[in-house]
Amino acid sequence: MTTRSAATSSPTRTVGDHLRDWRQRRRLSQMDLALDAEVSTRHLSFVETGRAAPSREMILKLAERLDIPLRERNVLLVAGGFAPVFPERRLDDPGVAAARRAVDLVLAGHEPYPAVALDRHWSIVAHNRAIGPFLEGCAPELLAGPINMVRLSLHPRGIAPRIVNLGEVRAHVLARLRRQIELTADPVLEALLAEVSAFPVPFSQPHPRKGQEAGELFIPVKLQTAAGLLTLITTTTVFGTPVDVTLAELAIETFLPADAETAERLRAMAG
After folding, report:
1. Angle 15-25/41-49 helices, nearest 10 degrees?
2. Roughly how many angstroms between the first and final C-alpha of the chain, as a whole number?
3. Residue 240, phi-psi category: left (phi > 0), alpha (psi -120 to 50), beta (remainder)
4. How far does CA 103 lie from the centroid of its chain?
5. Cα gap 202→86, rounded to integer Å
């Protein structure tokens, strides 16, 4: 067992500090993680307290077992005195051209139904031409710069006034956001949750129901538009086994018609 002073990414945060925080966030005991990673509990304890310095391979192994996001795995490596191994490139970088083509293909292929590509903070980085119905009547400031899908959806000057079942949709979106924060510990998402949770909800909007009604399989988004009511369901697509930070954090949110009337209206709106 090699021992040395643990390198840090800041004056107070060692690699052991980071690992202990992630282990506790995942609600695992030292024994649970040690067994899963096939290391001794004693060695793991030494790593967390700074009495032992983990190798690069050990950091990556523990991070894998803890399901730590790639961005934070780089933080762990730097805290342990190693260089980051997961690149982070913009979608317009030539190095991820194939992935960008795949995103554009999915978005275009989903028309005449709406679809957007979102980054880790729910900002829209790409979209198809069918998202027009979502943007009707939204305040200009919400559409300036990167559009945040959560803020746009729940803001009283955004989409929210036109969502017939806002109470249900709001509860679902906030639950997803809380789950994402639990998984990533992202402070930007924590600030976003605090912001949108404070948005007023009209008394006329129904509250989320307790449990599902008989035969109900999902919570649709019921959106009033100039063309009439759209009833939509959503699906999320992510890249499998990515090794780039940007691609690991990218999600494609697609909207599908929940009934024949919605499908017909979307086709008509597309011309």
Report:
1. 120
2. 68
3. beta
4. 16
5. 45
Rounded alpha-carbon distances, angstroms, from residue 145 to 88, 132, 140, 204, 226: 21, 17, 10, 31, 25
The predicted-structure confidence for 96-112, as pLDDT tens digits, reads as follows 999 999 999 999 999 99
User: pTM of this prediction?
Assistant: 0.85
**Positive or negative: CA dihedral 180, 186, 192, 195:** positive
Is the separation of the CB atoms in 86 and 246 below 8 Å?
no
Question: Structure tokens of 97?
Answer: 């051209």
How far from the centroid of its chain's Cα atoms is residue 145's Cα? 19
Average of pLDDT values for 146-154? 96
Letter for the amino acid at 37? A
Q: Which residue has the tokens 């909007």?
A: 205
Question: Which segments of 80-148 does DSSP mark as H helices, in order?
Answer: 97-109, 132-135, 140-143
Please say whether the beta carbons of 22 and 67 come within 8 A. no
Compute the distance between CA of residue 101 and CA of residue 31 in angstroms, rounded to an integer: 44
Sheet holding 228-238, edge to edge: 124-127, 115-118, 251-257, 228-238, 221-225
State the residue for tokens 């275009």.
108
